[in-house]
């Protein structure tokens, strides 16, 4: 049984890989996207227990993407991550529907603590051997 599925949306592939490693070591399955189109494909295909979103990704309208996600799903937590340290970004993210905000760089233990705040242990679904993430275009995962 998976600890839960998490969607990670960020244009920095190195950061995504580092996050995937940290989360996989804790039993989480991760679907990832590096642009808005891929992000929408993930959210149309799978139901993650958490979305980790950098608001500055190619093809996205910045903070408005949070509102778009909220229009699709009002319950899945959205954890915004950004290297932008302006309080305006944090405040806008929260007012647009983000559940939390972390400023990059994020130590692994801080990230895990935040993830556990939103994803309860054992909340992942047991199913067939082919994960929902692997059903997507392999370049998205």
TrEMBL record:
Q: Which InterPro entries match?
A: Bact_response_regulator, CheY-like_superfamily, Sig_transdc_resp-reg_receiver
SMART domains, alphabetized: REC
Keyword presence, Phosphoprotein: yes
All copies of the Response regulatory domain together span 5-119
Origin: domain of life: Bacteria
Modified positions (4-aspartylphosphate) in chain numbering: 54
Residue ranges of the region described as Disordered: 122-141
Record field: compositional bias (Polar residues): 126-141
Q: Does the keyword Phosphoprotein apply?
A: yes
What's one GO BP annotation on this UniProt entry? phosphorelay signal transduction system
Q: Which UniProt keywords apply?
A: Phosphoprotein
Q: What is this protein called?
A: Alkaline phosphatase synthesis transcriptional regulatory protein PhoP
Which gene codes for it?
phoP_2
